[in-house]
Amino acid sequence: MISIGTPEGNAIRCPVCANIASAADVTCSKCGNTLVFLDPTLMTIALSAIPVLDRELIERMRKLVSDVKPQKLRIDFEKVQLPSAAVFGSFLVMVKELKKTGTVIAIRNVDPQIQQMFVMMRVDGLMETESV
Length: 132
Ligand SMILES: [Zn+2]
Known about the structure:
By secondary structure, the protein is α/β, with parallel strands linked by helices.
């Protein structure tokens, strides 16, 4: 079992939104993301509670994914706003790193403006777009 939780009784910090959750929680009370990943086959990160991406968030995601090493990472972009160029750059570094390790990256609910950025940066081919 893979868990990002600290030993029982201690508070844990959500790796996605940095909310402090109780160690007993399985999902974050703020963003709803899974705090304990039982199955490294597929990891889903939903960003709807954190629509404005920043580099710190991308860094937390990168750390989380490199700890869990999922075969497939699904990122749900619902409500996510067009990020700044710097944040976009950090995201793309993460995507390219993951591709090198063979992780399949799937994205869903991507805003057309963000999708257009992926196409312009020629990284759309690195990720599978899932229709919901
Ligand atoms: Zn959270």
